Amino acid sequence: MKTMSLVWLFFALFLAGCSTNPAHGDRSHARKETCKPTSEAEIHEEFVRWNTALRGGVAELIVAIYAPRSILLPTRTYPVRITQQEKIGYFTELMRAHPSAEIDLEFIEIGCNSAVNSGLYTFNLDGQYVKARYSFSYRWAGTQWLITSHHSSVVP
């Protein structure tokens, strides 16, 4: 009987040990994040803000919409642009074609302090129209949405 009680005790302790995960144990110090309430309309307006800056012709103003740690995978040229100076160089060159864009198809996905706007747009570059696919990812930076990644590629 005593042996059977010890077996049950060890079995119970074994099960208790299996139920705790040291990697996910005490979460009292875990980061608590408040999610900014947003909507598809608000994220769409971020595209409008980007397009307005694009039409404005000042590269520094459009690059200010990108997070300091962000990536630009542009349509027309290689390489990718990571630093602010690389993005300024890219947009300075692009501005010579007086660009503007119009969304043809838009799909928005919203997360906690993040959002993705993907779809199809048509670029107007000095009167020549280029259809392209796009993806913008955004992060809420406390006071505004910033672009963390932007990919654009010509529709084949």
From TrEMBL:
Keywords, sorted A to Z: Signal
User: InterPro entries from the entry?
Assistant: NTF2-like_dom_sf (IPR032710)
Q: Where is the signal peptide?
A: 1-25
Name of the protein described by the UniProt record: Calcium/calmodulin-dependent protein kinase II association-domain domain-containing protein
Q: What is the lineage of its organism?
A: Bacteria, Pseudomonadati, Pseudomonadota, Gammaproteobacteria, Lysobacterales
